[in-house]
Amino acid sequence: MRQDLPPRETFDEALLGLVREMSVAMRQPADAGMPVSLDSTLEGDLGFDSLTRAELLTRIEHSFGVSLPEQVLAQADTPRALLRALLAAKDLPPGTSGAILQRARPLPAQAPDSADTLLDVLDWHLRRHPDRAHIILHDGAGEDTSISFAQLHRRATAIASRLAEHGLRPGMAAAIMLPTSPEYFYCFCAVLLAGGIPVPLYPPVRLAQIGDHLQRHAGILANAQVPILITVPQARPLAALLKASTGMLHSVLTPAELEASAGAPVHATVRTHDIALLQYTSGSTGSPKGVVLTHANLLANLRAMGQALDVSAQDVFVSWLPLYHDMGLIGAWLGSLYYAYPLVVMSPLAFLARPERWLLAIHKYRGTLSGGPNFAYERCVRKLGDAELEGLDLSSWRFAFNGAEPVSVPTVRAFLQRFARYGLRPEAASPVYGLAEASLGLTFPPPGRGLVVDRIGRAEFARAAVAVPAGADEDDPLEYPSCGRPLPGHEVRIVDATGRELAERHEGLLQFRGPSATSGYFRNPQQTRLLFDRDWLNTGDYAYVAGEEIFITGRAKETIVRGGRNIYPYELEQAVGAIPGIRKGCVAVFGSADPGSGTERIVVMAETAEKNTPARHTLHRQVLKTAIDVLGIPPDHVALVAPHSILKTSSGKIRRAACRERFEHGRLDRGQEAPWLQIARFGWQALLPQFRRGRQTAASLSYALYVWVLFAALAPATWLGAVVLHRPELGWALSHRAARLLLRLGAVPWFVEGLDRLPRDRPCILVSNHASYLDGIVLVAALRSPVCLVAKRELRNQPIPGVYLASIGADFFDRTDTRREHEDVERLVAAVRAGHSALFFPEGTFGRAPGLQAFRTGAFLAAARAGAPVVPVAIRGTRSALRDGQWLPRRGPVGVVIGNPLWPNGNDWPAVVRLRNTARMEILHYCGEPDALRVKHQNTRPA
């Protein structure tokens, strides 16, 4: 034990040094970097059991020359609490700690830069300006609705209590399928307050594609394992079908029902690396990709975007963007939540019907930040006349971001030209780049710079993927807008197909890394593996770098390779969409494999309302001519389809892969099926999995019932025999045979390995992992010779288990009272010295989630003091067979692996810790479960 302390500036630093010293000694070398702060919990974060805390208390008293009250050991749960007790014992004022004790963290005037979670952000604003207007719902008719921070919190708290009553528990997902409305914000915050994970879903807009809508949502709900869906009353019929399709959804609730009567307030603990949001990306119906975004990810992105834009509470964000899309949810709402600038929000449908409402809202509220995908700017250019814009003033608009889909340089120029007369400044135009896997934003241009365009040679770029600047006299150059530079704290690089980083102006795959990067896709390990290239994340986009600026050239999966050339769909889609008679924004260009030649065919699918045959032939020829003008070669196939046949994502982007699938399966007009037929087909498809699940459930229930009947037949007889015999060795022998019979009759495939490693001529202490209620049965079946089973003291007073355990020689430990635990250890030491072996579960308890937890030190302290070997025992498979919280056992393999005896090297505290760590690593090697401490360490590293 250390006799003195090196000089330190403050008491808090000295105390943390002791805690870190203990923490490092207890952990494996790979985990030695576990962060320790004054607010780390001794048991939950650092894994200090009562005996370890007692050792820490002894070291504190010795190092600081104080005597601490006994209740400190039981009550102090953090180093901060120990620090308070230390200062009180030294009779020093609280300010003596100098650095941290009772000190509010320095916070800037406008944003909670030290907040760890979104709930911390809301709480920070509640304390400073609860009545400040946070959200203004704009309806365009003068009936705007204002929501303050206090109102948001009050309504969300009421809904959170009701969600808890309906079974929402921390870590569970809850889907929100609501339109833009006050209830959306209340329900989203309520899920967070209840400790849940919000999953935004977009509500159905067109009945013409209801089947596709249902199928996509069913995949998302099943992947996220969503038990609760919050939606509008009109969606209940659809929700019934989703219930049948997913098998997990059990409650479909409306905001009105959730606010009807508030229950008891919930106080869920939310930490910075907990999941704050599952953002499902646009993609195929079969493999939904839910991007895992933690509170740390989101806050890092919000801070980086705010720094790049130099935002302040004086900004005003005007948004029509959908709240189920990351640009509207994170960029618009959560950005305003963090920086406390007002968010003026309107329905996306209001914008689509009357796009002038967007611009008039910027005018009315003097909006400074606003934007959307490229089609929004195109729509304003094409749809709005001067009469609808009379008196419009856009001079306040300082950052008009354009993202979420390819940015059209002609569209940006046309928008700037069209609205310059209304005060729009050219320097406001700001193409940006981001993706859900980066939380939202990745590259931004500096505010106030305006549009920067790179003109490059078309032929060289198509041939060699090199962006050579075009000469002034070049007739038909390619033009790509700069999307700026990476956000602060983030990096990007361009690599080729082998992962080699490319030089400037060479096109390749864009990768990134940074604090706002996701850890992967929820319950989708295959797609997660494809996402990562070591510590870099693949964006799926092609790009090149010029002068440290990022230029996006297209989606990697959507680029068509033809004759050694890379052909990018977007440019041709724009050109075809400009043909009169073709619906603009409703053109899909994609490559499709030719079964005969093995090459890619170029397919153009375009929507038209034209039904006249000669007119359709004319359109067909115009599409061919346009394709030749743009590409220099004709497409292999032109498909003119009916309106609403082109599939799009929730944000309006063309789903080229889904269109390709329809083309290859000959279902070009599938989108025009009657809604009732789509719903009927989806309902039938939903029932088939239900039938299959029903068969599996019936088989599982039958097996579980059979096992319980076996247990009911064997357990009473075993209990009675052990109690009547009242001799531990006979009771153990009877239990051993009964346990083996139960496993055999239950058809449980099980094995025991390493029985010959048990010491035959001396007592030992066996330590085993604890994963299920079956562990005791399996160990009794595996061990022929009786051992003293160490159980928690609470079982002693329970008549059935307490009497039985006592009859087979069990001992009972008190894990809550340190004095009693020391007495229990000394009693066990005496028993071991007298020749009795003992069996411990050093984890103390078990849960449903797999993972080897921290080991308590009692067993190893007893072994060190008794000079007895520790034998590690690993149990495999019992958690899957009967998981915590479940009462239906399932058939599966179970095994017991007995390791080599470990001898203590001394009886002091470091020797006890070494013995514990070695035994734990042995069990971890054989138990088939992850290291829960390592996972926790990785999840609590600072971003």
Spatial strand sequence of the major β-sheet: 29-35-34-30-33-31-32
Radius of gyration: 33 Å
Can you count the beta strands?
A: 35
CATH superfamily membership of the largest domain: Glycerol-3-phosphate (1)-acyltransferase
Number of helices: 30
What's the CATH first level of the largest domain?
Alpha Beta
Give me the CATH fold name of the largest domain: Glycerol-3-phosphate (1)-acyltransferase
Mean pLDDT reading: 84
Fraction of residues in helices?
A: 25-40%
The main β sheet shows up as: 7 strands, mixed
The portion of residues forming beta strands comes to 15-25%
Low-confidence spans: pLDDT under 50, at least 5 residues?
Answer: 1-9, 93-109, 938-943
Spatial gap, N to C terminus: 35 Å
Given helix and strand content, the structural type is alpha/beta
